[in-house]
Amino acid sequence: MPQEQYTHHRSAMPSSEGPQVYKVGIYGWRKRCLYFFVLLLMILILVNLAMTIWILKVMNFTIGNALYFKSARNVTVNVLNDQTKVLTQLITGPKAVEAYGKKFEVKTVSGKLLFSADNNEVVVGAERLRVLGAEGTVFPKSIETPNVRADPFKELRLESPTRSLVMEAPKGVEINAEAGNMEATCRTELRLESKDGEIKLDAAKIRLPRLPHGSYTPAGTRQKVFEICVCANGRLFLSQAGTGSTCQINTSVCL
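Predicted structure:
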């Protein structure tokens, strides 16, 4: 087309006044697909929310009620470190409850220690330790305690059925019965020994009812007064009192 005709053609075209507006958006099948995906996403959210509420309802996961773990076999709780190594472990089974760890502690709500156990020692922090078993408590080795006391109006019994019972203290052992009797019974020998001190029998009355009697009897007398005699081996015996000592006459008891 010649240049003159092209120029005349442009001048003949109507000119539009003002800026031109271009529509931007998604039309046609793309718009319908977008609405479909949005609707599908909303349906999945509702289904997920419904499934979550159903699981919480079935498993009894509520804020106000307690949490229960139920299993036909064992229930194991593990605490792991960064290298997935087991630090502590709690296993509950049909026969026993087992806890594995370096230390086991039981505390009150206020934080006071009631019980503690590790490789070195077992600590009972309660004010009183009560053993309710009919057979009592068995200690295979030694026990250290500042006080062993029975309940009020109950008897305290320390017994070793097949071996000896030893009580030792560097500053003394005191056995006191404030409102009753104290008895020491044995099958063979009862020894009271003091290595560096003395043995005191401090009482208003001292009775030795089963001491042997000497054979000496003064003629024509039936006295009820006796003197206590001591043999060279430490044996005691009774001899009827006379005007003088009669222990030398009854030395046959010491044989």
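Summary: The beta strands are 75-80, 86-92, 97-100, 104-107, 113-117, 122-124, 226-230, 236-240.
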